Amino acid sequence: MKAYIFPGQGSQFPGMGKDLYESSAVAKATMEQANEILGFRITDIMFSGTEEALKQTKVTQPAIFLHSVALLRTLGDTFKPDMVAGHSLGEFSALVGNQTLSFEDALVLVSKRAMAMQKACELQPSTMAAILNLDDAIIETICAEITATGEIVVAANYNCPGQLVISGSLNGVNLACEKMKAAGAKRALVLPVGGAFHSPLMEPARIELEAAIQVTTFKKPFCPVYQNVTATAISDPVQIQINLAKQLTAPVRWTQTMQQMMADGATSFIEAGPGKVLQGLVKKVNKEMEAVSA
Question: CA of 221: how far to CAs of 61, 68, 83, in Å?
Fold first, then answer.
């Protein structure tokens, strides 16, 4: 069974999508349509903008989403997934892939999501940190102990065994990093991000995104999506809506998602989007599993 997986924020790079734009009429039309919907030429930033320009939240998220969908459209009839999943932002690409959302509606939601997250980041200084080679349960316990003192820090991204990202207030994350190093973590590295994604500090963004999701049409997909919030196969449009709104303040259960897809019969994983990050995570879960680019 084929599982298509879609990358999220962090997989962007200068020049992304230019080869698709120049080699595929379908991709070019998709990207030009996105320029019109967004009201600015995101393709100019993708193709020739600086790394710093591409890191702007209002650019990064739509750019990665657009790259994935343009790639899907070039695949045409050869795109036949049995299941789909996306890492954080990538879930929107997955929902276009299995026809839950139209490209146009999903792009509007992604843009609103990016702007809402940016506003939430500006309300309180916050950050994220990658924790390597420390048991998940220990990380969760340390986060809970620090949160009990009034700071905020939570497990945010379960990326693969031995790699978990925490998220929260600046002081909370820094305290957690110190405690996790003392507990035996190989590394506890604060990441260059603008805020505490997938934490309670994203609540204002969640409320804003939920309002937009509630007035958007979600159709019954032709194959299940394994959502970040539950790490299980979901095909009910109403439940997909609910989970998608919860995603901003809930952890990305990517390790559990990959494990469940494998348990449900996935025999190969195809990454559709810029970079190869997710292929590496698949191999960390099961080194024998086939993982390739679309």
Answer: 23, 18, 10
